[in-house]
Amino acid sequence: MGDLLALLDALPAWPLLCDAGGRVVESWDPGGGRTPFPFPELGRRIDEVIPQPAGGVLLDAVRRCRTGGEPVTVAYEMGPPDRRRTYEARVVPLPRERVGVLSMDVTGHATVLEELRRSEERFRLAFMTSPDAIAINRASNGKYVAINEGFSELLGWQDHEVLGRTSLELGIWACPEERAAMIADLERGGRAKIEGRFRRKSGDIGIGLLSAALFEVDGAPHILSVTRDITAEREAERERRQLEEALRQSQKLESVGVLASGVAHEFRNLLQIIHAHVDLLRRHSPPESATGPFLQQLEQAVERGADITARLLAFSRRAEVRVQRIDANELVRGVARLLERTLPGAIRLELRLAADPLPVDGDPGQLEQVLLNLAVNARDAMPEGGSLEFASERIAAGQAGLLGGEELGRMDLAVLRVRDSGHGMDEVTLQSAFDPFFTTKGPGHGTGLGLSVAYGIVKAHGGRILCTSTPGEGTTFTVLLAAAHGRAPASLPAAPPAVQEGGQETILVVDDEPAILQALELLLSDHGYRTHTATSAEGALAVCREQGEGLDAVVMDLGLPGLGGEACLREIRRATPRAKVIISSGSAWAGWREAGATAFLTKPYPLSELLTTLRRAFAEAE
Fold first, then answer.
1. Which fold has domain 324-482?
2. In 247-374, where do the E strands start and end?
3. DSSP label at 38?
4. For the domain 2-110, what is the CATH code?
5. What one-character-per-residue DSSP string does 551-568 give?
6. Could you read off the pLDDT of 393-431 as tens digits, one per residue?
7. Strand residues in 453-552 grouped as ranges (E)
8. Which helix (H) or strand (E) element contains residue 79?
9. Tens digit of pLDDT for each residue in 69-87?
10. What is the pLDDT of residues 494-519, one digit of tens each?
11. Could you tell me the CATH superfamily of domain 506-621?
C-alpha cells in the first residue's frame, strides 16, 4: 500500500473520487500545492468545490461517464487572466457506482498544440491560395495525394483528374529526364531545385522553376513540390538576346560598311585612272589599231570593278537612293518575269502576293536588286531543284511586335518574304550571312556580296531584313519597309538627248590624283577648252580668286585633302558665282544640288560623259 501511495504522490496530477451524484468522496494531494483550488471537502459536489466554469465542466463529465459507462476526457481552464492555466481531466467509471477524476496541468502541451494548429492553418492557406503550382506526391509510387488551385490553373488539370495518378501517366514532364534528375537530387539530399519544361493539359509546353523536398506524413515519405511558371520570363530573355544579337550584328555591319565605303572610294579612283587612260588611248588610236581588243578587255574589267564597288557602297549605304512611289507587288511581279526566263527548270516559282496594291517609297532599281540577290541565293541553295516563293502582305501599325523593331513597329509595314526549300543554314552560317565577302560557295562561284548588298539597300531605305533558316528545311528572308499611301506613278521621265562634246570655255580641274588630273586636262585641251588645274581645295580657291569671272566651270573631286570638297564648293560659289561646278566622287552625295553644284558624276565615268555634262551645263546657262 505504501508503494502505491508513493506512486500516487509522484504523479504530476491530482486524483478525485466521486459518487454517482458528483460528490467528492475521496481526494489525494499528499505533497500539497498541486491542485489549482483548495483541497476539496469530502461530501460536497465537485462543482461546489471547484470554481466555475471548470466545476460545471467536471460535473457534466462525471455524469456522462456514469451514464454511458465509458471514459470521458475534458479540458478546462482556471486561474486569473494573466496566469490562466489549461488542464485536462480523464474521467473513468469505477466499481460501486463511483467515478475517478484525474486532472493534469497541460498548459505547455496545449500551447504546442495550438501552435501546431495555427501552423497547419497557415500551411493550408498558403497551399490553397498560392499562385504557384503546389502538389504532394507519395514518394513510394509518385501518385498525387493533393494539389492546389495554382496547379489546376497552370496545368489545366482538376483534382479529380489528378489524385491517385502520377505525373508520368498525365504526361506533365515534357522531358522525363528532368524528372529523373529531380528524383536523384531528392534521394541524395532530400531537396531538389531544377528548371524544366512541363506540358499542360492542352498540350502547350511551358517552362517552370521547380523546388521539391521530402517530408513524412503518418510515417510515410512524401514529396512536396512547388512549381513557378517562368515561361514569360524565359521568352522575354530569349527575345532580349535576339535583340542584343541583332544590335551586335548591326554594329558589326555598320563598322564593316564604313570600311567598305572607304575601300570603294579609293578603288573607284583607281578605276577612274584606268578608264580615263583607256578612253584617251582609244581616242588617239586609229580605228584599225591592233590595240582595240585589248582596250575593250580593259573597259570590261573596269565595268566589273565598278559593279563590285557599287555593291560595296550599297552595303555601306553610301549609294544614293532615288526615292519614288512604287507598288511592291508590281516590283515582285517584274522580278518574277525575269526569273522565269533564267531559273533552272527544276525550281518552281510561286507568288503569294497581297490582293491590294502595296505602295512603298524607295528606289525601284535598288529594291529590285534586293529581290534578285535573294533569289540568286535561293537558287544556289537548291542545286537539285525545289520551290522559290515570293509573298507579300501589309501589317497594320503595332501588329508586327518585335519583328518590326521599335521604330518600324509604330508604322504600317509592307512585308516581302522570299522563301526557298533549299538546304538551309546552321546557326554559325546564319550569324555571318550578311557579312561582306562571306560565302559558302567554292572559288569562282560568287563574290559573297549578294546578301550584304541586300542588307545595305534595305537599311538605306529605313527598313529591316531578317533571316530564319533550319538545316534541311530551307531559308526565309523577310524584308520590312514602311508602307506608303497612294498610287505609284506609271513611268519615269525619259533621259535628255545627247549633245556635242567640244567648246572654248575656261575650266578649272581639281583632283588629288595626279593621273586623273593629267587625263582630264589632256581631254579638255583636245576638245578646245582652256584649263587650269589644282590638287587641293586651297589650290582651287587660289585659282578661283585669280581668275574671278573669267572662270566658266569647275570640275572637282569631292574627296579633297585639306579644307575638303564640300567646304571648297561653298567657297567656290562665293568666289565665282557664275561658274558651273561639276562634282565627281566615288561615293554618292544626295545634297549636291542644295550645295550649289550643277551636276554630279559617279566615278568611274567615261570621259564622254564629262564632255556631255559640260555642254549641257553651258547650254542651260544661255
1. Heat Shock Protein 90 (3.30.565)
2. 324-327, 347-352, 359-362
3. P
4. 3.30.450.20
5. --EEEEESS-STT-HHHH
6. 998 876 765 555 556 666 788 999 999 998 888 887 777
7. 464-470, 474-482, 506-510, 530-534
8. none
9. 899 999 888 888 888 888 8
10. 444 444 556 788 999 999 888 888 88
11. Response regulator (3.40.50.2300)
